[in-house]
Write a structure and sequence with these properties.
This protein is of the alpha/beta class. It folds into two domains: about 5-165, P-loop containing nucleotide triphosphate hydrolases (Rossmann fold, 3-Layer(aba) Sandwich); about 185-285, GMP Synthetase, Chain A, domain 3. The chain is about 35% helix and about 25% strand. The protein has nine helices and nine strands. The protein has helices at about 15-25, 70-80, 100-110, 125-140, 155-165, 185-200, 235-240, 245-260, 280-285, and strands at about 5-10, 45-50, 50-60, 85-90, 115-120, 145, 210-215, 220-230, 265-275. A hairpin with a 3-residue loop joins strand 7 and strand 8 (about 220-230).
Length: about 290
């Protein structure tokens, strides 16, 4: 008997969805920073066993959209309800319900199995944890509740085993050696964007998109050329920094991570270009993989 299915992870921003996804997959597929809206796309991570295939889906944190890019991000979340065989609703200890009532109602009325993961319990005590479990069992009565720490790995294996138990019988959807649905250039873009999220403040990280224009793999080295898109000339200056120092730091840190990811030497060239108001431009958003309607 072979089991296979889509396990879709949803929740508010910064609840640890990407940390959980990477823990399940055993690879760093989703970038992780402390800033909200780190995840912009829906990323699939595929975990294969002899008699199962779990297709995990990490989606953007649920927000009230303020511009076109955020509208597109919420479309990725909506799509996660459409094909899920198991729904993981992830909340942080002490957190309230989703800000979006429509999404919350979809969870509480779901006909598919719902696992509610109460994350970051390493930052709490037993008494408060028990209160939280009681509170969430009333809010989402159709869910099985698992206290977890995605970062520390607490209860992650138990959740993984439960997912396998409730997966439907099915042949695999993807080849057994496939790890994700995204192309290599996507992970180059995300690695660079992660460094920008880590090192720049205020609006800068949210005004940035990465486009890897060249990716040539040779026997011992991969040569890449990536462009950092910003919306204004002032942002371009900030990204580059004094005598190019800020951009150089992004390049060095990105290259180190990419060499680990691809398992070989990487040569990375970085450039910065102004692409005015790309976040509100339907054509540009489509080019960068958003607005897939």
């Amino acid at each position: 008997m072979h089991k296979a299915g889509f396990v879709n992870i949803i929740g508010n921003p910064n609840v640890g969805k990407s940390t959980l996804m990477n823990a399940f997959v055993g690879e760093k597929l989703s970038i992780i920073t402390s800033k909200a809206q780190t995840t912009r796309h829906r990323i699939l991570g595929i975990v294969n066993g002899e008699d199962f295939q779990i297709i995990l889906s990490d989606t953007p944190g649920i927000i009230k959209p303020a511009y076109e890019l955020q509208e597109s991000m919420m479309d990725f979340v909506k799509s996660a309800f459409d094909d899920a065989d198991v729904l993981i609703y992830m909340v942080e200890i002490g957190e309230k319900a989703l800000k979006d009532d429509a999404f919350f109602n979809k969870i509480t009325n779901s006909k598919i199995p719902v696992l509610l993961l109460l994350n970051k319990i390493d930052m709490s005590n037993q008494e408060f944890l028990e209160e939280q479990v009681q509170e969430w069992s009333l809010k989402v009565p159709n869910a099985e509740i698992f206290p977890v720490s995605a970062l520390e790995g607490f209860n992650v294996k138990e959740v993984f085993s439960r997912i396998i138990e409730i997966l439907p019988e099915s042949p695999p959807f993807y080849p057994k050696d496939q790890l994700t649905d995204k192309p290599e250039r996507f992970f180059v873009n995300e690695t660079i964007r992660e460094k920008i999220l880590m090192h720049y403040k205020k609006e800068i990280p949210y005004a940035v998109e990465i486009d890897t224009e060249e990716f040539f793999e040779e026997e011992n080295i991969i040569r890449m050329r990536s462009v950092i898109m910003v919306e204004r000339d002032t942002q371009k200056g900030i990204i580059i920094g004094h005598k190019g120092s800020a951009l150089k730091r992004v390049g060095i840190e990105s290259r180190k991570d990419l060499e680990k990811f691809f398992g070989k030497q990487v040569h990375l060239e970085l450039y910065v270009k102004v692409n005015k108001n790309w976040r509100s431009d339907q054509r540009q958003l489509k080019r960068f993989g958003y607005n897939q309607k």
